[in-house]
Amino acid sequence: MDLYERWSEARTKIPPGKYHIRCINKERPKIWVEGSKGWGELLNRVVLWFEIIEGPEIGKIIPMFLNLPTDKQGKLIDKISDGHRYHDAWRVANGGERPPRNRFKEMNPSKFLNKSFTAEVSTVKPTWLVPSEDGGKPEKKEKPDIFHYSRVFCLYELITGNPEN
Hints:
Blueprint: H1 3-10, E1 17-27, E2 30-32, E3 39-41, E4 45-52, E5 61-67, H2 85-93, E6 116-124, E7 127-130, E8 139-142, E9 149-160
Antiparallel strand pairs: 1-4, 1-6, 2-3, 4-5, 6-9, 7-8
């Protein structure tokens, strides 16, 4: 069973807060491209898979979804700026050092693997769009608790792992 299947069975939900986590895998999710004969790559996202490494939630798997830099047409671009979530997370994994010339192609997601971090975990509460009672604009309504799940929101600090790798 792969990590996504392991996670999606229960959609891990833990209390929000700071945790010590270790990156155990990275992937570029694939989507079905209509009219093709197979799965195509989703160009604008990477998923990092983390395992809680201490405390009562030890062993639970939590994803971190990071969008990659794109232009207005959704095509991957090479320039990435400070404040972009992928840039900031990669910089933590790189021991605080900036990426060379802020070029995305030099910011491999493998930089996260087998490293431990202090991170903020948040709860995602998906919503439905439901018709408004007055027939106007649809309103957002939070989905029931069974649809909520945890994700790594941000990385604060590299605990263990060589920033050079």
